[in-house]
Write a structure and sequence with these properties.
heterodimer; A: about 325 residues; mainly alpha; MetI-like fold; two-stranded antiparallel sheet; about 70% helix; about 0% strand; disordered N terminus; B: about 260 residues; alpha/beta; Rossmann fold; 4-stranded antiparallel β-sheet
């Protein structure tokens, strides 16, 4: 941009040259902002290159199929390791977290933005934001010491009444160190981010959109259905994706709660399973150089997974653009 | 069907601030009544008390009586939601539901009131769009979003949405202030047609518009900034614009303010 501005400068001899691009403040700010932009790209690119390079070393020596193997033994002879279980566990626990957290978060956000008296709304919003300040290791300890024992009753109940769904059938005995418990814990952890982003979006619904519904004789819920939710839709999707990003990458809390194994089971109440981040945290310390490369390869898959999720979210938002509140 | 509005001793507040003071007037059915007056005189606030929209504003509160035929809108046990289903409103800026198609915009109020068969819904939507003089322009793109229309078309879409539920009264809050002169003319013509079926109250800053569209005109004024607005007089439009009975009205319409 700057170079084109310079090319169309006034011809020499004119007394008043456009000086605004030449002022020190402009130059410094341009340099800073451009530098930050470039820095971001450089960081992203170097992470991608680092992950790909180290992953390629590991995958080329993998004697199993990296994508389908149900095992993680890079130190073995021959080395055999694959991400199937980790991918499955990451996706399943995150999906459980989303299914629980998003409706609750949207409900809390609507309560804060449209139902609660102003003072109460402020207090609730503050408490919700406070949840985000709890370190994830604390969530992990709480999950292991409180959630796991308390969930055993719920697990029995689910198994008894919903065991026929297969998903909630508990076929193995053991404490609730399962993907289901991890999902619930992740739901609590992503609740604040999804709630606060949704709340901000709901508060931005133009007054005139809500009055349009009110004037037609809409009840409060109908106003929300006609005006608030359609306007907030893409914002809620973005909020959910932020939450999903956190759920996919959560490490310490998952590692503290889950008792990992290398089996894939849709019985989500059974203890076992694993996630990318949990597996890396559990094995990185003891791994040799090659083992670390193998773990980095699994990290690369998580990186790609997160990119895909974000891309999908953008597609969903873009597809609805014609109908979005933005062009009102 | 069109009903008479009878207001007596009505005051409206924003928190502790009194916005309008002790207004009484009668609005005849099947007629157009225009509210004119300087900014801040409370004419929009008064309009919003007629369908209980004023109390939606935080701190909004109303004293007095509004009779729709013989029913007090502020009587005990009256549901404001039910009031708004019989007293429709069109706003200053066109506000179609941005995420809805043209068809769904018009059908929105009907769907709130109950379920209709598809064919009945089609008929009412067509009738309402014809009633709003918009049918010919949008009949081929009923499934396109309402926010894709021009400003004037959007405002007529909002009118179609308001009349689709067959309200008793139609309130219009400066419906042309965001529109160009041609769209304004289209809306004014429409108001003339709609008064055959509805009781219409229109707030306007444009005195020519009040003179063109209304049968009766009410002039509001306020003593000073921060003081509540008052109804100065209401009379036949012709009389207001030719020979008003209060000096302040004459000063205002002839451009000598205050």
């Amino acid at each position: 941009m700057a170079s084109t501005t310079q090319q169309i400068q006034t011809p020499p001899g004119r007394r008043f040259r456009p000086r605004s691009t030449g002022r020190a403040g402009d130059r410094i700010f341009l340099g800073l902002s451009r530098g930050s932009g470039i820095l971001l790209l450089v960081i992203m690119a170097s992470i991608a290159v680092f992950l790909s390079y180290r992953a390629a070393i590991a995958i080329s020596k993998d004697e199993g199929n990296f994508l389908t193997t149900f095992d993680w033994n890079p130190a073995g002879d021959p080395p055999v390791f694959g991400i199937a279980v980790l991918l499955f566990g990451t996706v399943v626990s995150s999906v459980i977290a989303m299914v629980i957290a998003v409706p609750v978060a949207v409900g809390i956000a609507l309560f804060i933005s449209h139902y609660a008296p102003r003072k109460l709304a402020g207090a609730i919003a503050y408490v919700i934001d406070l949840l985000a300040a709890v370190p994830s290791i604390v969530y992990g300890i709480w999950g292991a010491l409180v959630l796991v024992p308390y969930l055993e009753g719920l697990n029995l109940w689910l198994d008894q009444f919903f065991g026929w769904t297969y998903v909630f059938e508990k076929t193995e005995i053991g404490v609730a160190r399962s993907l289901f418990t991890v999902g619930i814990l992740l739901a609590v952890m992503i609740l604040p981010i999804v709630t606060s982003v949704s709340r901000e979006v709901f508060l931005q619904v133009p007054r005139m959109n809500e009055e349009a519904a009110l004037a037609l004789g809409a009840t409060r819920w109908e106003v929300i259905r006609l005006s608030v939710l359609p306007f907030g839709r893409s914002g809620v999707i973005s909020a959910s994706m932020l939450g999903l990003g956190r759920a996919l990458g959560e490490t310490m809390a998952v590692a503290t709660v889950l008792s990992p194994n290398f089996l894939i089971s849709l019985h989500v109440l059974n203890p076992g399973g694993g996630t990318f981040a949990q597996n890396i945290a559990a094995k990185f310390g003891e791994a040799d150089a090659f083992g670390r490369d193998a773990l980095i390869a699994s990290g690369l898959v998580l990186f790609v997974l997160t990119l895909l999720v974000n891309g999908a979210a953008r597609l969903i938002i873009a597809r609805r653009k014609e109908y979005s509140g933005a062009n009102a | 069907m069109a009903k008479r509005i009878d207001v007596s001793g009505l005051s409206a507040y924003y928190g502790s601030h009194k916005a309008i003071d002790d207004i009484s007037m009668t609005v005849e059915p099947r007629s157009v009544t225009a509210f004119i007056g300087p900014s801040g005189c409370g004419k929009s606030t008064f309009l919003r008390t007629l369908n209980r929209m004023h109390e939606v504003t935080p701190g909004g509160r109303v004293e007095g009586k509004v009779l729709l035929d013989d029913e007090n809108l502020y009587g005990a046990g009256v549901d404001p939601v039910a009031v708004r289903r019989t007293v429709g409103m069109v706003f200053q800026r066109p506000n179609p539901f941005p995420t809805m198609s043209i068809f769904d915009n018009v059908a929105a109020g009907l769907r709130l009131n109950g379920s209709y068969r598809k064919s009945a819904l089609n008929d009412i939507v067509e009738k309402s769009l014809r009633g709003a003089n918009l049918w010919n322009e949008v009949k081929d793109r009923l499934n396109k979003p309402g926010s894709g229309l021009s400003g004037g078309q959007q405002q007529r879409l909002c009118i179609a949405r308001a009349i689709a539920v067959e309200p008793d009264v139609l309130l219009m809050d400066e419906p042309c202030s965001a529109l160009d002169p041609i769209s304004t003319l289209a809306i004014e013509d429409l108001v003339g047609e709609l008064k055959e079926r509805f009781t219409i109250v229109i707030v306007t800053h444009n005195m020519q518009q009040a003179a063109r569209v209304s049968d009766r005109t009410a002039f509001f004024n306020l003593a000073a900034v921060g003081k509540p607005g008052k109804l100065i007089e209401i009379d036949e439009t012709e009389r207001i614009f030719s020979n008003p009975s209060v000096q302040a009205t004459e000063d205002y319409i002839s451009g000598r303010f205050g």
